[in-house]
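Quick start: what a row looks like.
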Amino acid sequence: MGVIVNKENNNNNELSRRIDADLRAKMQASMNNGGRRVEDPDYLEDSEYVKDLKKTSKFGWIWIVLIVLAAISLISIFFF
């Protein structure tokens, strides 16, 4: 029984060593020249969920201002 447990530990150690070496190799491959990690693309724009959506234009902040002004005017009408 002790031999089987010992053999499993050797297999686990070998597996842990191989996983560790693989993770180190992937980390080294993902580093750029400056030593900082390169961000992995998330491919969000390619997904089916956002296929028909459009990005907000540079004047999208105007909608927020208009909504805030409308809320202020409604508050002033009802309470003053």
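That is the whole record. The mean pLDDT is 76. The helical segments are 2-29, 61-79.
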